[in-house]
Amino acid sequence: MNQQELIAMLDRISKIMNQNRNYLIELDSVVGDSDLGLTMGDGFQAAYEAVSHGEEPDLGKLLYKAGKTMGNKVPSTMGTLMAAGLMRAGKILKGKTELSDEDVVVLFEAYEAGVADLGKAKIGDKTFLDGFHPGVQALKAKVEAGATLEEGFKEAAEAALEGFEHTAAMIAVHGRAATRGEASRTLKDPGAAVAALIMKAVADR
Length: 205
Hints:
Elements: H1 3-19, H2 21-31, H3 36-51, H4 59-73, H5 77-92, H6 101-119, H7 129-144, H8 149-166, H9 190-203
């Protein structure tokens, strides 16, 4: 993955968030404060625009700058978590001017780790991770098996969507949804929806 392909990926994520702004607002209105569609749309757009000029050849620095800009633009809980993912990936990949397929896997693993470390959440807590983690694992498995990135991303998108759907069987541990206790079980997690959208955007190359 070269610089322009990475920037194009950020562009697709930005666009899918804005296209699904109302959908995320609707999901978030049940368990949050209804601002998820706004923060994800505005945040990922700011991240993309910060690096869209293509002047930064270091892809790690590019990702870090995208994340830093996003965090400043939308300093909400979810905005900060998504920014942390980009910044962690940026730190890990600093010095790279092109990403191998294995580096791309590292990018997504680092993104997940950045979100998990800051949010103090784990798999099964009914969060972003329950959509994102299955996608990352599917991507990793396909790449390790010698598949193309396109094939890996397709599997990742399907796995992330399935992970999001499965959050309807989980009890929320974090955020406002957690105050509902058992009543939160039937609700789909808005954060996991964001994860599924990210993976879908990545796959739509």
